[in-house]
Amino acid sequence: MATLTLRPTVIAAAACIVLAWANHHVCAEDRAVRIVVLGDSLTAGYGVLAVDAFPAKLERALRTRGQSAAVANAGVSGDTAAMGLARLNRSITDDTNAVILELGANDMLRGFEPSVTRAALVMILRNLEARRIVVLLCGVRTQPNRGDEYKSAFAAMFSGLASEHDVLFYTAFDDAFVDDAQLKLPDGLHPTAAGIEAVVTRILPKVEALIDRARRRDR
Hints:
The chain is an alpha/beta fold. The chain folds into 2 domains: 1-30; 32-218, Rossmann fold (3-Layer(aba) Sandwich). The chain has helices at residues 2-30, 41-44, 54-64, 81-86, 88-91, 105-109, 114-130, 148-164, 193-218; strands spanning 33-39, 69-75, 98-102, 134-138, 168-170. The chain has a 5-stranded parallel sheet, sandwiched between helices. The chain starts with a helix and ends with a helix. 35% of the residues are buried.
């Protein structure tokens, strides 16, 4: 009699475990991925309406493609990589799943050595890695009158960091507009709303890969 009484209890417990696993799996797949864009004026939306800033346009593009994602704007105009590091824990809360990291343009404009920028970016990447937040690292080309050697040194620094820390990499955030005057504001550095749209179109596959990494880490 004791055996007959135990069996329904065991079956019910097993069913609950299976249902709990299934619910977790479904929730992990359906839950909106929280992405934060940590950057400078290129991502903050300098010179354009808030609805035309990169994070806002990216979120709309992702939803159009059926992706459940919320994209927060943590861009601050004028920020260097070190400044981004200083505000990192305020800007990237622990409920963040993924970060698009776009810093370094102001370092280049101010003539910083790549090693200085690299040191700050390493600290950012280590912090996010420790918190299990996946990253898409973006390089930049913005470096007027600094010469090809300087440009190459920064390009190598960005790509090297991506490889060393095993993060997704987008070669140059400003690639989509930097050579097209019609996609830039009169200052020649920042994108117009159309320029930002061009960036979103190009970077979208990388962001979708970022979302996939975040979902796999959440399982």
